Amino acid sequence: MPIRVFRQDITKVEADCIVNSANPEPVVGGGAEAAIYDAAGREALLHERENIGAINPGEAFYTPAFRLHAKYVIHTVGPIWQGGSKGEAAILRSCYENSLELALSLGCKSIAFPFISTGIYGFPKDKAIEVATSAINRFLAHEQMEVILVVFDQESFNISSEKFNDVTEFINSRYTESRRSERGNRSNVRMPVQDLVGNFHGVSDGKVPDDVSELLKQSTASFSERVLSIVKARGLEAPDVYNKGGILTKKIYSDMKNQGDDYRPKKGTAIAFCLALELDLPEALALLKSAGWTLSDSKKPDLIVMWHIVRRDFSIRNVNDTLNAFGFADLDKYEK
Question: What is the C-alpha to C-alpha distance for residues 273 and 284, in angstroms, rounded to an integer?
Fold first, then answer.
């Protein structure tokens, strides 16, 4: 089931359980938490919350929902934003994962979440939305549950809706056209790179930068030769490539360099090199081709990768989060 995003008061949502972004101590905070207590019956819900005691960040516990349109309230404590270097994203992910697993154990068929930690705890809304959708879609990849994300302010609603509407529109337009071509028995016909690039917003003329244009003309150059030539042409050092996070490591870079023409990366690894080198779409397609891979309009994960490249978002983490948000695996499990 897909995630649904509502702009609404969470106390008005009908679901088997409603998630409360709770205070660590058994006291009633402000904002949405206060609204949940008031709608449920403050005295009764607080008594049940006191029986739980203190809750550590990332943990989740449940109480009856009393007068709410739900069976249970799941109380989870989000992280306080401290710049992103204190494991805040991992804690926030645990809030969603533990709440979902708890709801599953309670037999719930639906759950409503607020955007946890985006209020007084200061977690940036765009980052919080990425974490939430990634965690939820990982869960939905193997479990059936209706998940509702409830936002109260217009900004959060715009951030969540615009990004995923944009990706969805991009996928649908290219994927649908590809399917039409297949039905017309043209599934083996590939558009030239320059024609493909011209169809994407954000790429003005499809020109390849001068520093790698000659390399792209060398159809016989191996994957390793191309990577090393681009690294040299752009004045990069090896750590500039393998320290981009995600799939790439010092060992993978060394294997690529030492094995030379014999190096054959998996598709996800080849894509990770494209992202780490910040290649535009023609460059990325040329590099992938040298390893025996391509990006296809008929494969939705490929379209997500294209969407990020065209928008010059080369973060491997961001690509993985978007893949996860649409129910696909990370790049390191990207085989075809």
Answer: 9
pLDDT at 129 over 90: no
Q: What is the DSSP string of 37-83?
A: HHHH-HHHHHHHHHHH----TT-EEEEE-TTSSSSEEEEE-PPPPSS
For the stretch 226-250, pLDDT in tens is 999 999 998 999 999 988 766 889 9
Beta sheet of 60-64, edge-to-edge order: 3-7, 146-151, 110-114, 17-21, 72-76, 60-64
pLDDT of residue 257: 93
Element (H, E) at 307: helix 300-310
Please state which architecture CATH assigns to domain 3-152: 3-Layer(aba) Sandwich (3.40)
Question: What are the boundaries of each domain within the chain?
Answer: 3-152, 164-333
Confidence of residue 188 (pLDDT cuts 50, 70, 90): very low
